[in-house]
Amino acid sequence: MDILKKIEQYRFQEDSLKWEGTFADYLHLLKEKPWVAQSAHSRIYNMIKDAGVETENDRKVYQFFSHQLFGLEEALEKLVEEYFHPSAKRLDVRKRILLLMGPVSGGKSTLVTMLKRGLEAYTRTDKGAVYAIKGCPMHEDPLHLIPLHLRDDFYEEYGIRIEGNLSPLNTMRLAEEYGGRLEDVLVERIFFSEDKRVGIGTFSPSDPKSQDIADLTGSIDFSTIAEYGSESDPRAYRFDGELNKANRGLMEFQEMLKCDEKFLWHLLSLTQEGNFKAGRFALISADELIVAHTNETEYRSFISNKKNEALHSRIIVMPVPYNLKVSQEERIYEKMIKESDVADVHIAPHTLKVAAMFTILTRLKDSKRGDVDLLKKMRLYDGENVEGYNLADVNEMKKEFQEEGMSGIDPRYVINRISSTIIRKGITSINALDVLRSLKEGLDQHPSITQELREKYLNFISLARKEYDEIAKKEVQKAFVYSYEESAKTLMDNYLDNVESFCNKTKLRDPLTGEEINPDEKLMRSIEEQIGISENAKKAFREEILIRISALARKGKKFDYRSHDRLREAIQKKLFADLKDVVKITTSAKTPDEQQLKKINEVVARLIDEHGYNSTSANDLLRYVGSLLNR
Ligand SMILES: Nc1ncnc2c1ncn2[C@@H]1O[C@H](COP(=O)(O)OP(=O)(O)OP(=O)(O)O)[C@@H](O)[C@H]1O
Ligand SMILES: [Mg+2]
């Protein structure tokens, strides 16, 4: 569809959502849709919930966040279960400021932005609709019009609790514009928009000395005093501070802990009592979520200051740690690259994965369990199968350190290194080695990294490099086999036939001559030796495999070469061992002969067609693996 048509359609949609009526009409509407009177906290919770909740390993995964925040499922579950959900139920946490605490570039701002954009969209849906007194700069809740002494009756009839008093401005308007007839007061549907300053505010402290509290709570409009005669006339006041504008929705308080105390005191009363003081008026009721973010150091210094005690008790701190899963970290990079201007550069397969391995290693803490090194922990955290470990082990490891994920390398650093490599070299294709090199160079220039940490990180770079070497070798060897999956399957079937006849002490039949033959001991051993199974252990290994086959068969499942990790590894190694010389000679030939050339072209084509390389990265890979195999 052409863009002008879409614009027209959008306008039409927006128009069709509009609603305006008297307060009496609004009450009517409430009977039908009582949820539109929900509190700001409740609306935010429902927005998150309505986007869908999935369960994964006994964990709730909130879909609302899942298309932009990766690997933070646990932190987000905690945030929803311990803050949003109870605050939606009007429990006490609602009266606290939500403070997201986490390391730099860990996704705090992204999270807040998602809530803001989410609310803008949600208030355009039926479930998220919001109504306000028309013409009120703070989009006051129409239900505030109901006098205090009638609120119990209202609750009985509508089942809705009203909190907060009618603001000074609307009290005056009710008297002057509507002659006290509250049923006539005009109400309209509002749509949150940060740009239009409806329901969403952002407060960012500037210089503490010059900053005006007016930015937060509004100010007197001196030009109108002459007209209204007095500074305490609410019409002479501009209710245009961020707290005013964010009423009914959310206010982001940037750099809250760096802020001057006098600003924070306003928040104290707002969060605790649901109202704040502006100008010379009675307290103004407001209903909004206040969310701030900070890093650990800043937070520690804040709470160590006695003066902040009162505020501290009104803050609820939610950790937003770094993601600790390699595969999710890759997704973060992919997302960030897509958003950047280097999006059209070819990134060879495994490049981001290898960078992510390095990053995750810098974030992990050494387990106290002697049997788990960092690489193993990295794999386990990412949900990989590691023989001898299960989910319970992973959960146990996660409980070892509270602060895991609160330090290490941030995603922005990695993306910066990747972009600088691309831009500096003007290249159109990068691979894992380019990125590791660049990460390494970057460490030298990094101002905040101590010598000791640098040593440690350099070690992680070489670990990641070793992992890459293995991946690269496997990739090339696989591409050398005409059809890897098929060859693996054939070899496996052959092995299993022999194992079966060995264990059952039966004979095999030669497929050609039909003759009875003994199991092929040489073949079985040549596979088992690949994973170091000794002569003495071979019987137990073979029996274990047969048991696995029948266990699977009982569940109606078929054993294939992926069913048994060690056997799979053995089969792979055997296939590669048979090929090793061919691969080695072909990839490292300085002047390949005709046949080698043909093979190289075939392999390059396979890497391009089936594995996502381009011709530069495929040829680089072959050359690199050639050099590895000749070491
Ligand atoms: N877990 C994650 N999932 C998806 N993207 C992430 C994640 N962590 C960081 N990012 C990406 O990293 C970049 C930096 O994140 P963001 O600005 O939200 O971090 P921050 O915690 O606010 O950092 P700062 O402390 O520097 O303000 C963003 O592009 C963000 O999308
Ligand atoms: Mg931020």
Automatic annotation (TrEMBL):
It comes from Lederbergia citri. Pfam families: AAA_PrkA, PrkA. Keywords: Kinase, Transferase. Residues 21-371 form the PrkA AAA domain. It comes from the Bacteria. One of its GO terms (molecular function) is protein kinase activity. InterPro entries: P-loop_NTPase, Prk_AAA, PrkA/YeaG, PrkA_C. This is PrkA family serine protein kinase. Gene3D superfamilies: P-loop containing nucleotide triphosphate hydrolases (3.40.50.300).
